[in-house]
Structures are given as C-alpha cells and as structure tokens.
Amino acid sequence: MGIFYSIINFRSYPFEDMEETASGDNCQNLCEKENEDVISELRDDILCYMLSFLPTKSAVATCILSTRWRNLWKSVTILDIFDDISGCHKNPSTYKERKMNFVNFMDRLFIHRNYPSILKFRLILAQSYDFSCVNAWMSHLSRWISSSAIMGNVEELIFSINFPVRLPEKLYCCEKLVTLKLHGHIRFDNLKSVCFPSLKALHLEHLRMLTNTAIKMLLSGSPALEELELEMEGRDSRQSVHVCSLSLKRLIIRFICIFVTYDNSYRKKLTIDTPNLEFLKLVDFASEELSMQRADSLLQADLCFGYQTGVFNVGIEEYANMVVQFYRQISGVKTLSLSNFNIQTLLGAAVSKFPCLGNLPTFRNLIHLEVRVGDAYVWILPEILQCSSNLEVFVLILDEDAYDWNWCAPHSVPQCLSSCLQVMEYKVFQGESGETEMIEYFLRNALVLKKMNITYLDDLKTSKVDVLKRLSTCPKGSDACQIVLIPEHERSFEVANMRKASFFSESLNY
C-alpha cells in the first residue's frame, strides 16, 4: 500500500507550493496531511481497481486494515491465484500445513466472494490436491461462468494445473473471452462444443492430454482467432496435428525434441492451413511430415526443425525433399530465420548429392535473413544467398562451440551481394582465421554494403586491434561500408534491458 500513498501524496502537493513548507506551522500541517488516510476516502471502484494489480491472496489480506476495507476484495474483477508452496516440500509438516492453508483459502474465496463479474482470472496449481476440493472449486467456478455477468464480461482466462482435471463445460462458451491460456494436465475428453466468438489469442502449452480432435474443435469454435501458441511433447501419442484457421495471423508451434524410436506403424504429421497467416515460428523435432498450405500472406518465418537419426521412420532423402518443398511453400516471406538444424539438413542433402538441393526456391520477397550455423556448415551459405536475390540484411550467428573452420570462397558471387545487400551482422566472432577470411569475402563482394557489425566474444583468440587492422586493409567492394566491432557483453546487456522492459510492460498491461 505504501506506493499508492506515495503517489497520491506526491500529486496532492504541486511544486509551486514547496516554498510554503519552510515555516514550522506549514511543516506541522504537512505532517498532519501525510498521516491522513487518503486512500480509504476514495470510491470503492477506484480501490478495487488498485487491488486488482495485487495477487488475490494479498488483496484479500487488506481486509484487516479497517472496516472500510473489510469487503472490498470481494468486488475485485481480476483474480490472480497461485499456490506458492513449492519450496516447502523439504519439510513435510510445513508443506502439509501450507497446503491445507491454501485449500482453506480457496474454499473461503469461492464461498464468500459476492461479486460474480470477472474480467480476468488466472489459476496456477503446481501441486496436487484432493479431487473433492478441486471439484468443489470447479463447481463454484462453473457457477460464476454460468452467471450472466461473467458470460458478458470475462476477457482473459489462464489455467495452469499440474494434475488431471476437467474444466467446466461452460468455460468453452464465453462470448467475450479474448485470451485463453491452458497449461498442464487439463483433460479434453468431455469437450462437446466450443463457442468463442471474440477469442483473439489461444495458448495451448504442455497439455499432455490434448488431441488433434480437441485442437480442431477449439479452432473451429474461434472464428476471430488471430494468435495461436501450440506446445506439445514429442513423445505424445498423436499421429497428426492439423492447424486450420481462416483468421489466424500469428502461429507459434513447439514440438519438443525426443530421443525415443517412434511406433513404425504411422508417421507423425503437421499440416498448417492458415491462408491469412503473417508470422510463423516453428520448432518441430517430432513431425516426420510437414506441410504449409496457402501461405500467400506469410511475411515472417522463424524455423527450427531437423532430421532425427534413429528416431524417425522416414528416410533422410525423403525428409530433405519434404524440407525443400516446405521452403517452396513459404517462399514469399520477407523475413526468414533458419536454425543450424535447418542448415544441417540442407548440408546433408548436398553431401549426399540429393537432387532436392538444386530445387531450392527463389525467395523473391526476402529482404531480411538470419542464419544460425556451425563452423562446418558455413560453406553452404552461398547456396542459400543465391536464392535470395533481393536481400538487404543478412544476420549470421555462429555456434559458440565452433572450433574447426572450413571456409572456402565460392567461385561465383550471389546476386544479392553485388546489387542490394546493405547490412550484415556477424555474431559470436571468435577470432578464427577462417572467420576473418569469410568476413573479407563479404567485404570484397558486397558492392552496396553500408555496415558490417561484428559481435565478438570476450575471450577473442586474436586482439581487437589486429582484427580491425586486417579488416581495414582488406579491399572493399563498397567505399561507404562501416565496420563496427561490438563486445558480446554489451550486446547481452542490451538484450537483458530489452527483456526487462518487455516484462514490465507485460506486467503493467496485465
């Protein structure tokens, strides 16, 4: 509460009145004003809005402040509940007591709350609880959802539950729900109908009991959906996943890497049919077949997938052909990011002399390309750049465990270097001779290059001065090119600040 008192008191005393505080009488008056309970004089709706920024347990705790605050928490429209007892498991008696206290708190919360309307509800249960307790909580929740108030107002629901539980059927028919995030052991075997006419964002993460049938029902019942995050474990039993949505604009899929042999009676498939999709992030080490249909609107793709030797039922040549076909289906993107796994697949096709490598598409609209690559794969970069005739920005990220450079300048120069590449960023520079030779190749052949940014490790194998000296004397295709060396720790600090700013922004928005 201190922060609210500080804000209000600060705003109560404009700067132009500061001179009056010099006298003793004014100082005494000021101290008396400081001790006034200004917050409690605010309207109920303002106080409830302030309480909505606190975890629900803290909001309820304000009831002991005074009679004025005794029932305010019951009207808060944002509930944020989580069982913060995970650190007590080492002491059985303390853990049992804290767990029972949380159960009692939940029971009292659902029973005594007298204001059914909820805008946002987040429930995170990391521990397992008696099913009779959970069923009672869900029964109360179902009653809230069934009320006309919540059906008309709820905008955001977040559930993360670490034990098998069915959510109330009423939850899947909230007319004004905008955001739904589900995580954990939530069951979908009772899912009969879905009606989310206003849903914009749907996150389905680590749902061990999620089936393709449930995914189809959730998507078909969300005609306004714009963002989908789907994360599943690779060892799940699903045979295929079909993501089909006419409204979807942003799609993030993560199928976690597995290291166990599949059942050879079927292949795992992923089909994406989203004609209005603009952004795709795909991390997939479980699907043996990938298909992207109707991707004319796709502007940005971030890809990370590759062949799993000894795991997949499909052969490497067939998989490589499938990957190249996938690239053809997304060849209209403007921004593309490829992981070292994608590059490794192309490298395998080249080494094995598979014909698919010669069928790489031309990325006609691509202006920004980011590639993460190992030292043994860099020689295939010109093949990729050859497919990007209009490229303006090229970001190359080297794996930090690289130690055996194998750079050999190609005989031909990709068209983008001689006509349109303006910015190149090389990250994780270690000072190897082969790295410098590769950078010199780009400096010599990039005729319109304006900037070469090189982010180097702190334990550089050669001095920064020597690197600058060598690169400054290297013949350049563009006289306007500026070479900038950036220490890795400075870039890391900048990224950390960006993430912190993003975190605070998300916290305030919530």
UniProtKB/TrEMBL annotation:
List residues traversing the bilayer: none
At the top level of its lineage, which domain of life is listed? Answer: Eukaryota
- Please give the SMART domains that the UniProt record associates with this protein: FBD
UniProt cross-references to CDD domains, sorted A to Z: F-box_AtFBL13-like
> Could you tell me which residue ranges the FBD domain spans?
415-486
- PANTHER family per the record? F-BOX/RNI SUPERFAMILY PROTEIN-RELATED (PTHR31900), SUPERFAMILY PROTEIN, PUTATIVE-RELATED (PTHR31900:SF30)
Name this polypeptide is given: FBD domain-containing protein
The protein's organism comes out as Salix dunnii
Give the taxonomic lineage as stored in the record: Eukaryota, Viridiplantae, Streptophyta, Embryophyta, Tracheophyta
